């Protein structure tokens, strides 16, 4: 291969050609190429000359067109130290030698693009070959793995089939063995039974003889032992009776003390939880106040204050005024007794319901002479009280009795002016805030604080007996359930004429459920779980048909509360036995409603 060095312009002064210089042949140049250089320099020059002679070209003379030049003085390589001895040569010859050596050096440093391209092509080819090899190797390994998996599956299926065949064979052998064992056992049992009958007959004969003697001896001993035991038993019984009396008295005192402490602690916790919940509720209601007022909606606290205010009006302008007025009291007393009698005659048939409803309306709205306003108000209170008392007694004992009583109540609400407010106020008085529902506020409707816990319990709906002792929690829960069943049954009835007041309309059911589910304090009590069950039992299926998916979401919240709890360590119904039973009934009722709606 011929090496050529590129030419570059030189910044050194131009060198004029020598006209006397003649071209020489390759042999002459070979003879005169040393120019007095040492043998190593001469050999290098000869190699270059030989390469050029082999290619068929002659070495051109040094001229302006073919001489080698550097771009600047800094690019000129330093001369070898040995050339300092060649100072006797002419400058032209010395320059030619220097140019030749520089050209040779430049040729060795020359960058050939073709060789670089060839080198890159080799690298790319090697890289492509490696990639093809790796791909083929991966494909082969994948193929081997697939074949291995297929073989494993085939072997596993074969092993499984063999295993099933072995199991079937073993089961058949086991059944045969069991049959043979059963036959042998039956034969052995039959033989043993015959043998033991003979043995027992012989033993019994001997025992009968000996038993006569033993019975006589035992009778004598038993009589003496019986007399001794009776004396000891009488003494022990007397001592035990004294100890039991003392222990019972001590337990009663401790139980009373513990019960009182537990009641105080529970009331304190309920009060603290109610205060905290009331604060959170108040903050939430303040943020929603504008939207609520724009929609014409009220809060449970506002409804409770309104019911308390109506109750106070009924007492002051109705019952108390009539009792204090001698001219009005006889009329009120006779009408009140008639109302109580009519409510007691109610049965579950349409004719009786219509008749009793008409008679009750006639008592309060006589055709001949209208009643004075105080008497009318007092009789509305008496009618409401009679209906609520009937619900507390009859509906608690029999759920179906709520239907006729709700029909009569609905008829009176449709035809008697002002009866809605009076009845709702009376319900709030008898069962507390459960018809709203809401926790008991810290103050009355007139901002009067409560005197003590006794008054708070009375506002909650707890009744006192003739001896002044408050009813038990179980009695209170039964009364609340009966009245709430009546109230919810009235909401279920469709109006025939004009709609009733908002507290007795069907949408009130949704409001009631939303308020109850929003109060963890109420849901964490046994009464809360009981009234929630009553609400689902009376109107749950109808609410699912009316509100659809929205009510399903509410049922989901109730179901989660009955299974996972209310959060904050609280559970639906509390931890009492009554609460646990009520929580289970709520869960089952939700499941029943969802199954009926599918």
From TrEMBL:
Main subcellular location: nucleus
Keyword Protein transport in record: yes
Chain spans, region Disordered: 1-98, 210-305
Gene3D superfamilies: GLE1-like
Organism: Lentinula lateritia
Basic residues biased stretches: 18-32
Localisation: Nucleus, Nuclear pore complex
Extent of Low complexity compositional bias: 1-12
Record-given protein name: mRNA export factor GLE1
Ranges in coiled-coil conformation: none
Family: Belongs to the GLE1 family.
């Amino acid at each position: 291969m011929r090496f050529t060095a590129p030419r570059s312009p030189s910044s050194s002064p131009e060198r004029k050609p020598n006209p006397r210089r003649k071209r020489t042949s390759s042999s002459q140049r070979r003879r005169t190429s040393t120019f007095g250089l040492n043998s190593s320099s001469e050999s290098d020059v000869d190699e270059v000359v030989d390469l050029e002679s082999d290619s068929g070209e002659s070495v051109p003379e040094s001229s302006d067109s073919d001489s080698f030049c550097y771009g600047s003085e800094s690019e000129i390589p330093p001369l070898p130290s040995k050339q300092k001895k060649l100072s006797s040569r002419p400058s032209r010859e010395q320059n030619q030698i220097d140019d030749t050596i520089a050209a040779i050096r430049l040729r060795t440093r020359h960058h050939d693009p073709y060789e670089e391209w060839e080198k890159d092509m080799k690298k790319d080819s090697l890289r492509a070959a490696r990639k093809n090899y790796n791909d083929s190797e991966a494909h082969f390994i994948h193929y081997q793995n697939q074949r291995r998996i297929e073989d494993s599956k085939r072997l596993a299926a074969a092993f499984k089939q063999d295993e099933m065949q072995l199991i079937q064979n073993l089961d058949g052998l086991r059944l045969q063995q069991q049959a043979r064992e059963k036959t042998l056992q039956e034969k052995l049992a039959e033989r043993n039974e015959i043998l033991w009958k003979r043995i027992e007959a012989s033993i019994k004969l001997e025992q009968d003889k000996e038993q006569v003697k033993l019975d006589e001896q035992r009778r004598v001993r038993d009589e003496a032992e019986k007399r001794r035991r009776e004396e000891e038993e009488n003494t022990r019984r007397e001592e035990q009776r004294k100890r039991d009396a003392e222990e019972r008295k001590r337990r009663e005192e401790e139980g009373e003390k513990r019960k009182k402490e537990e009641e105080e602690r529970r009331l304190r916790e309920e009060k603290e939880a109610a205060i905290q919940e009331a604060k959170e509720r108040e903050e939430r209601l303040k943020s929603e106040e504008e939207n609520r007022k724009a929609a014409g909606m009220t809060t449970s606290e506002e409804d409770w204050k309104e019911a308390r205010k109506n109750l106070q009006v009924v007492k002051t302008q109705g019952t108390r005024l009539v009792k204090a007025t001698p001219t009005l009291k006889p009329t009120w007393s006779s009408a009140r007794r008639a109302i109580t009698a009519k409510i007691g005659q109610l049965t579950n048939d349409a004719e009786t319901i219509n008749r009793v409803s008409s008679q009750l309306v006639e008592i309060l709205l006589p055709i001949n002479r209208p009643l004075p306003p105080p008497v009318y108000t007092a009789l509305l209170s008496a009618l409401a009280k009679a209906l609520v008392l009937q619900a507390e007694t009859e509906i608690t004992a029999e759920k179906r009795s709520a239907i006729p009583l709700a029909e009569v109540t609905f008829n009176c609400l449709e035809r008697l002016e002002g009866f809605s407010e009076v009845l709702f106020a009376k319900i709030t008085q008898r069962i507390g805030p459960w018809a709203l529902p809401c926790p008991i506020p810290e103050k009355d409707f007139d901002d009067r604080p409560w005197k003590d816990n006794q008054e708070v319990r009375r506002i909650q709906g707890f009744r006192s007996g003739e001896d002044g002792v408050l009813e038990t929690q179980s009695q209170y829960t039964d009364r609340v359930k009966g009245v709430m069943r009546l109230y919810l049954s009235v909401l279920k009835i469709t109006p025939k004429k004009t709609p009733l007041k908002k507290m007795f309309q069907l949408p009130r059911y949704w409001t009631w459920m939303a308020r109850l589910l929003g109060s963890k304090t109420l849901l964490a009590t046994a009464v809360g779980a009981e009234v929630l069950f009553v609400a689902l039992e009376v109107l749950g299926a109808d609410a699912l048909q009316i509100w659809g998916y929205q009510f399903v979401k509410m049922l989901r919240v109730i179901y989660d509360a009955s299974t996972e709890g209310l959060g904050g360590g609280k559970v639906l119904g509390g931890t009492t036995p009554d609460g646990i039973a009520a929580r289970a009934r709520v869960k089952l009722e939700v499941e029943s409603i969802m199954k009926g709606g599918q």
